[in-house]
UniProtKB/TrEMBL annotation:
<protein>
    <recommendedName>
        <fullName>Plastocyanin-like domain-containing protein</fullName>
    </recommendedName>
</protein>
<dbReference type="InterPro" id="IPR001117">
    <property type="entry name" value="Cu-oxidase_2nd"/>
</dbReference>
<dbReference type="GO" id="GO:0016491">
    <property type="term" value="F:oxidoreductase activity"/>
</dbReference>
<dbReference type="GO" id="GO:0005507">
    <property type="term" value="F:copper ion binding"/>
</dbReference>
<keyword id="KW-0186">Copper</keyword>
<feature type="domain" description="Plastocyanin-like">
    <location>
        <begin position="169"/>
        <end position="264"/>
    </location>
</feature>
<keyword id="KW-0560">Oxidoreductase</keyword>
<keyword id="KW-0732">Signal</keyword>
<keyword id="KW-0479">Metal-binding</keyword>
<feature type="domain" description="Plastocyanin-like">
    <location>
        <begin position="52"/>
        <end position="154"/>
    </location>
</feature>
<dbReference type="Pfam" id="PF00394">
    <property type="entry name" value="Cu-oxidase"/>
</dbReference>
<feature type="signal peptide">
    <location>
        <begin position="1"/>
        <end position="42"/>
    </location>
</feature>
<dbReference type="InterPro" id="IPR011707">
    <property type="entry name" value="Cu-oxidase-like_N"/>
</dbReference>
<dbReference type="GO" id="GO:0009506">
    <property type="term" value="C:plasmodesma"/>
</dbReference>
<comment type="similarity">
    <text>Belongs to the multicopper oxidase family.</text>
</comment>
<dbReference type="InterPro" id="IPR045087">
    <property type="entry name" value="Cu-oxidase_fam"/>
</dbReference>
<dbReference type="Pfam" id="PF07732">
    <property type="entry name" value="Cu-oxidase_3"/>
</dbReference>
Length: 293
């Protein structure tokens, strides 16, 4: 998923001269899709109002600090139709010095100025191609801290999907470390270099289980750490399906370092597309697909 990200910047609401200050605190949100910002007659404008801040969360049943949007981890899904205008009003509530967001894609504090703590910036862009994308923080280790979410673009109104399906699921894959992103960043930038090691957990839609077997959930084991009630932040998400129906899986990898291999062996599957928009195929059989972050 690539291309140019945000092609035009809007003026931050709280700065008359946005580039007059040092670009010091940055929280870059970039969307992985090509966009244009010119207006389009007949398109619909989708409005989103976000606040980015630190939160305590237990993605894998171990509490830590994440970057969340509107109290959510991962961030809320942006959904629009091809041709729509997306308008995101983002407020930076990261009060710690050194944390924030640049306006749009580019090298933070060099090619882009930043959204300082307490400031608000409006992203406005047109989505042109239907597909499955994602947005993420692009400054420092913000993506590893959980600042990401899905961006789904449906076909334009009046157009038909190339394939029939009865329902769909959005699957957002990510890697997760218990060590804070500040410790990770220090190790990666130190001399000598300190490798942060393999992630403690792999998350699906922000949920995973660390050092824990789901077998306890289905057996008479005395172990209680995996006997979920369903409302825990780390409880597995259950995708409920009806036999003999066709489901579309929108799979995105937002991993920081891990390359993943997703396998579905219980159903006939076909790949409808990938990061390359023109790549389309339909092969029935079990799905075993390598997914890069």
């Amino acid at each position: 998923m690539g291309g140019s990200f945000f092609n035009r910047i809007l003026v931050p609401s709280s700065s008359a001269d946005p580039c007059s200050r040092a670009c010091r605190v940055a929280l870059l949100i970039c969307c992985c899709l090509s966009v244009l910002v010119e207006s389009s007659l007949g398109s619909k404008t989708r409005h989103f109002k976000w606040e980015v801040e630190y939160m305590y969360w237990s993605p894998d049943c171990v509490e830590g600090v994440v970057l969340g949007i509107n109290g959510q981890f991962p961030g809320p899904t942006i959904r629009a139709r091809a041709g729509d205008i997306v308008n995101v009003e983002l407020k930076n509530k990261l009060t710690t010095e050194g944390q924030g967001t640049p306006w749009a894609d580019g090298t933070a504090s060099i090619s882009q100025c930043v959204i300082n703590p307490g400031e608000t910036f409006v992203y406005r862009f047109k989505v042109e191609r239907a597909g499955t994308y994602f947005y993420h923080g692009h400054y420092g280790m913000q993506r590893a801290a959980g600042l990401y979410g899905s961006l789904i673009v449906d076909v334009a109104k009046g157009e038909k999907e190339p394939f029939h399906y009865d329902g769909e699921f959005n699957i957002l894959l990510s890697d997760w470390w218990h060590e804070s992103v500040h410790e990770q960043e220090l190790g990666l930038s130190s001399k000598p270099f300190r490798w942060i090691g393999e992630p403690q957990t792999l998350l699906m839609n922000g949920r995973g289980q660390y050092n824990c077997s789901l077998a306890a959930h289905y057996s008479n084991s005395s172990s209680s750490q995996c006997m979920f009630r369903g409302n825990e932040q780390c409880a597995p998400q259950i995708l409920r399906v009806i036999p003999n129906k066709i489901y579309r899986l929108r799979v995105t990898s937002s991993t920081s370092l891990a390359s993943l291999n997703l396998q579905i062996s219980w159903a006939k599957c076909g790949m409808l597309g990938s990061s390359y928009p023109d790549e389309t195929s339909l092969n029935l059989g079990s799905l075993n697909k390598e997914i890069m972050g």
